[in-house]
């Protein structure tokens, strides 16, 4: 046991303090990511026009693939890392870290090169036409070759958080977000360049964020060390297994957007799709906030699980679940009171679109009452290696129940019922989870909270 491990703050700090030390940086970092994406889109649309913006959006799935890769292996590897640290196995933890980074970097690079070789048909497969294809290809090709920088930054951020430095992980996200906006402003408004250079600017911003994260290597409390690498098939399989729910969550976001666009187009036409786009932007911010809650508890739960500190694990879950419900109630109330000004922020839409969007926000925000608890519970099971139940939670709320309700209730009750699909899916999953926890005799609360 080395000195850094003996005085790990997770072993000695009050649980409430530990939770806040991880929660606040995670929330700030995630919200900055949301703002960064929005500002980026606003600048491209205003300077280069709607066709260029459409081209960038068409290339968006490439970005999603890299995010999914970094989360899949990053969270999977980091969960194993924290469990090893909880068991005081620092050498094994360092090997897990090295192994995970190598798999992410090599895997992303291979996927990028193979996709680049078929970039022309890929662009059209993603939905481009002759007008948008040049912009989509220019943006996508840069990401295909240099996207491994972005995935390494994202994965390294996860490991730095798991190594007890959530503040530095937040600082890297702040650096990436603000430098991305600044670099892209210079590219567009000073140098008068285009989409290809915007993609390079995004990669450069990720590189700066990565450099911030590298500074963690030189801190006294860092356990992250690159060690001699050898491929471990069992470790790779476990990392892929543990991280799969996070990858599935990315798939679920795409399934949510595509399926709702199709249903609104079918039942409400262009006005319905426009109203949903407003809700989807707002939901993106809210979703990142709840993802931030999951990112906050994952290192803590994994560590306590590895250390076999059962009561501390239960206490952090009590705090996290109550926080999830509290944040959800606040979000729900904001939606009821401020639906109209929220819609107006996005522009001067026709009254039909405004009415649909306002109604949508007020109904859809019911989901946030329980979404926080579902995120926390999914992260809990993922963090202790109960991947089957974590995968079921993710698939249930974002794919299975969502699609089941989407293909039934709108045809029975009309277009307004589409907004109820996600709230019903979230509530159904939580109720089934409560039954599962009771039958499995899993409880976190001293007074019956789950």
From TrEMBL:
Identify the main location. Answer: membrane
Protein name, UniProt field: Multidrug export protein MepA
The record, for Pfam families, names: MatE
Per the record, membrane topology reads: Multi-pass membrane protein
Under the heading InterPro entries, the entry gives: MATE_fam (IPR002528), MATE_MepA-like (IPR045070), MATE_MepA_subfamily (IPR051327), MdtK-like (IPR048279)
**Compartment annotation:** Cell membrane
The residue ranges crossing the membrane are 20-39, 51-75, 96-118, 138-156, 168-191, 197-218, 239-258, 278-304, 325-347, 359-377, 389-411, 417-437
What does the record list as coiled-coil region(s)?
none
Family named by the database record: Belongs to the multi antimicrobial extrusion (MATE) (TC 2.A.66.1) family. MepA subfamily.
Entry annotated with the keyword Transmembrane helix: yes
- Specify whether Transport is a keyword of the entry: yes
**In which organism is this protein found?**
Shouchella xiaoxiensis
Which superkingdom does the taxonomy of this entry point to? Bacteria
Question: Upper lineage ranks?
Answer: Bacteria, Bacillati, Bacillota, Bacilli, Bacillales
Keyword list (alphabetical) reads: Antibiotic resistance, Cell membrane, Membrane, Transmembrane, Transmembrane helix, Transport
């Amino acid at each position: 046991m080395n000195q850094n491990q003996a005085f790990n703050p997770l072993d000695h700090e009050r649980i409430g303090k530990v939770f806040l030390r991880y929660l606040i940086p995670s929330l700030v970092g995630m919200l900055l990511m949301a703002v960064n994406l929005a500002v980026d889109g606003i600048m491209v649309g205003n300077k280069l026009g709607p066709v260029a913006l459409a081209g960038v959006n068409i290339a968006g799935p490439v970005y999603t693939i890299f995010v999914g890769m970094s989360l899949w292996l990053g969270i999977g590897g980091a969960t194993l890392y924290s469990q090893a640290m909880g068991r005081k196995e620092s050498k094994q933890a360092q090997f897990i870290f090295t192994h995970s980074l190598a798999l992410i970097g090599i895997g992303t690079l291979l996927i990028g090169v193979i996709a680049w070789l078929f970039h022309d048909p890929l662009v059209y497969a993603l939905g481009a036409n002759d007008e948008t294809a040049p912009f989509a290809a220019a943006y996508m090709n840069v990401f295909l070759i240099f996207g491994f920088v972005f995935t390494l930054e994202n994965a390294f951020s996860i490991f730095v958080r798991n190594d007890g430095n959530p503040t530095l992980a937040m600082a890297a996200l702040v650096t990436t977000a603000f430098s991305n906006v600044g670099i892209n402003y210079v590219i567009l408004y000073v140098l008068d360049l285009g989409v290809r250079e915007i993609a390079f600017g995004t990669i450069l911003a990720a590189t700066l964020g990565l450099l911030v994260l590298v500074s963690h290597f030189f801190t006294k409390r860092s356990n992250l060390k690159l060690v001699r690498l050898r491929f471990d098939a069992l470790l790779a399989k476990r990392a892929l297994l543990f991280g799969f729910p996070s990858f599935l969550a990315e798939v679920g976001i795409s399934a949510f957007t595509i399926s709702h666009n199709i249903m609104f187009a079918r039942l409400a036409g262009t006005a319905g799709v426009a109203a949903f786009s407003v809700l989807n932007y707002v939901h993106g911010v809210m979703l990142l906030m709840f993802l931030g809650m999951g990112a906050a508890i994952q290192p803590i739960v994994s560590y306590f699980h590895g250390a076999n500190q059962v009561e501390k694990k239960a206490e952090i879950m009590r705090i996290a679940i109550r926080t999830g419900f509290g944040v959800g109630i606040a979000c729900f109330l904001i939606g009821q009171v401020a639906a109209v000004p929220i819609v107006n922020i996005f522009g001067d839409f026709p009254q039909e679109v405004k009415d649909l969007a306002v109604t949508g926000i007020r109904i859809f925000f019911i989901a946030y009452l329980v979404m926080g608890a579902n995120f926390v519970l999914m992260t809990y099971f993922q963090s202790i290696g109960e991947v089957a139940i974590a995968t079921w939670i993710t698939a249930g709320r974002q794919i299975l129940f969502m699609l089941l309700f989407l293909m039934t209730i709108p045809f029975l009750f009309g277009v307004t019922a589409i907004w109820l699909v996600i709230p019903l899916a979230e509530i159904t999953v939580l109720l089934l989870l409560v039954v599962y926890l009771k039958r499995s005799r899993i409880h976190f609360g001293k007074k019956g909270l789950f």
